[in-house]
UniProtKB/TrEMBL annotation:
Similarity annotation: Belongs to the DegT/DnrJ/EryC1 family.
Lineage of the species this protein comes from: Bacteria, Bacillati, Actinomycetota, Actinomycetes, Kitasatosporales
Keywords, in A-Z order: Aminotransferase, Pyridoxal phosphate, Transferase
Name by which UniProt lists this protein: DegT/DnrJ/EryC1/StrS aminotransferase
InterPro entries in UniProt: DegT/StrS_aminotransferase, PyrdxlP-dep_Trfase, PyrdxlP-dep_Trfase_major, PyrdxlP-dep_Trfase_small
Source organism (scientific name): Streptomyces colonosanans
Length: 220
């Protein structure tokens, strides 16, 4: 899509650093330069204000990624694109049957009411909960990783959704300030979210999380 739009050498394309390194790679393949902008901490998608802050004369496009089932603020991003003459491309997530989305939302509501010691995702009408991502806040990665190891030991199949932001990856290292991206990479943890989960399994997830009492302090 970028090549078809005429994006190439000398151009800059704004992309998120939180996951999806293949987007930065796609930009680089056209000969253009990927420029990383920070994310909105609630949606994990590009923050429109952060996008506008990095627009320069060479900027020709922005690639917006919808994350974890929570859509980006597309209206604002397109408005910024129109104001600066930028192409705004979207990368969506796979479509999920309505019944499965309804089931996920029911599970998300259950977890949101019962989980303690982690920050649960903000509820929004458009959220389809492709992943149920919580935050283990505190001193950063040691706390989140210790929490994840303890959950796995209790039989909860959790995972870190983004281990290395694109601006830290080899070939794309940038000396940029992306505080929300860095914080999200250090704190986020995806808990099981699947229409096949039983009430008993959901209760086990809650019990395992709450038994840890939130943060686990790193050993000294």
């Amino acid at each position: 899509m970028l090549s078809a739009a005429g994006v190439g050498a000398g151009d800059e394309v704004i992309v998120p650093a939180f996951g999806n390194i293949e987007i930065a790679e796609a930009v680089a393949l056209t000969g253009a330069t990927p420029v990383f902008a920070d994310i909105d901490p609630a949606t994990y998608c590009l923050d429109p204000s952060a996008v506008e802050a990095v627009v320069i004369e060479q900027t020709v496009a922005a690639v917006v990624v919808h994350r974890f089932g929570r859509p980006a603020d597309v209206a604002r991003l397109h408005e910024i694109g129109q104001r600066h003459g930028l192409l705004v491309l979207e990368q969506g997530e796979s479509e999920t049957p309505h019944a499965e989305v309804a089931q996920r939302r029911e599970q998300a509501a259950y977890l949101g009411r019962r989980l303690r010691g982690v920050r649960t995702p903000e509820n929004s009408a458009g959220h389809t909960y492709q992943q149920y991502v919580v935050r283990v806040e505190g001193n950063g990665r040691p706390d989140r990783d210790a929490f994840a190891r303890a959950l796995k030991a209790k039989g909860v199949d959790c995972r870190v959704p983004v281990k290395t932001p694109a601006h830290r990856a080899p070939g794309f290292r940038r000396a940029v300030s992306l505080p929300e991206t860095e914080r999200a990479a250090d704190e986020t943890l995806a808990l099981p979210m699947d229409a096949s989960l039983t009430k008993r399994e959901m209760h086990r997830i809650v019990s395992a999380c709450n038994a840890l009492g939130g943060l686990l302090q790193p050993a000294f």
